[in-house]
Amino acid sequence: MAAERVFLFSSESVNEGHPDKICDQVSDAVLDVCLVGDPQSKVACETVTKDNMVMVAGEITTQAKVDYEKVVRSVVGKIGFDSYVDDLSSVDSKGLCDKTCEVLVRINKQSPDIAGGVHVGKEDLDVGAGDQGIMFGYASDETEDAMPLTHLMATRLGKTLTDVRKNGELWWLRPDGKTQVTIEYKQKPDGSVEPQKVHTVVISTQHAEPLKAQRTKEVQGYTGEEATAPSMKEMNELIVEKVVKRTLSEIKLKNGESALTLFGEHTHLHINPSGKFIIGGPQGDAGLTGRKIIIDTYGGWGAHGGGAFSGKDPTKVDRSAAYICRQMAKSIVKSGLSKRALVQLSYAIGVAKPLSLFVETYGSQCGKLTPDDITSIMKIEFDCRPGAIAVSLALREPKYQETAAYCHFGRTPYTKDGVKFFEWENPKDLNKYLAMDSQQVTAALAGSNYLAKWVD
Description:
The structure is a single chain. By secondary structure, the chain is α+β, with helices and mostly antiparallel strands. It has a domain at 5-13 and 149-279: GMP Synthetase, Chain A, domain 3 (2-Layer Sandwich), CATH 3.30.300. 27% of the residues lie in helices and 22% in strands. It is built from 10 helices and 15 strands. The two termini are 30 Å apart.
């Protein structure tokens, strides 16, 4: 039993208009276009942006016809970047323009050495891992989504900022922005953690010029009644009411109450603490694909193997194995096998079977089960060969641009036009194992076909 303790933990997130997130979305948009034309596409696409320039580079082997410039401009426009002035004193420049930005392309085909070792001449289920590496998945019972509240809140604050910008409610917001949340937790003797209160909220969001910006000029295509941007003080007050409080009211804790019950006079608020934030996007900072890997996962909870997700097809286990690790961890927690779970997988390039599987429960396992028992259950229930992951999670479908902002995990799974989005968020029902002891789990493992899927 762990000792009870109270501690502070913080997580951060960024909006879809952050330069690094622009790059993640472009890379995944390229992947989607490739998969539409060729589900077996091999894609490793990186993006860089600075000022009014976006460059895509990497290795892509596909039968699809890709108009890279069209893809880039579409992503930039959808985010909301529609003006660039090459002057850092300009209050009109949003930092990037979908119509005038320079688009550079440096794409080659996948190395034949890699192709020969990974997939050429192999059956789908025998496709090897696209590279070596370690991947993790995490889940906690503190929220309905089995995500840590710090990260769920930071991520959804960013999404709400975008929503109220795009729907016109806070029209003077601009695409770039960052959030950070600190929560006071209690760690219980059973290894679980329970949020006690929202300690601090930090929001830095790009915005139009206070008291001067006109809506008809700021919002492309707007033809309604003219309006002027409010003062910085009013902006910050509106952000607290329409972003912070609204977001918290929509997050459900494990006790069924909203996270707003943890917010109050005790909460420290830092809204645009540096003052004005008019210059943003790639004009303020350069962006790169794969530079927000903690934001993409669990906000610092659990662990991270170091590999990024965006721009990678399912043979790249940095992505596909991290997805199945999340499904395993969430299945453990939602089935009541433990209150928290961390799952690790490792791979070698060209080898289909994972080299290792590790499950950590933080002492929160339930019933008669041990962490070793839960590890055995994972071997019975899951097939983590890259080809099998691609099938079980439907990863050869074009759906990745949607994952590239606001975290790959803790999202609501859905199906649209036959495409399954966030399938890894659907946990398997493992309730039948709750009544078992170690001997019964060992017998179930011995009677399964696990050696066809795992090294040992």
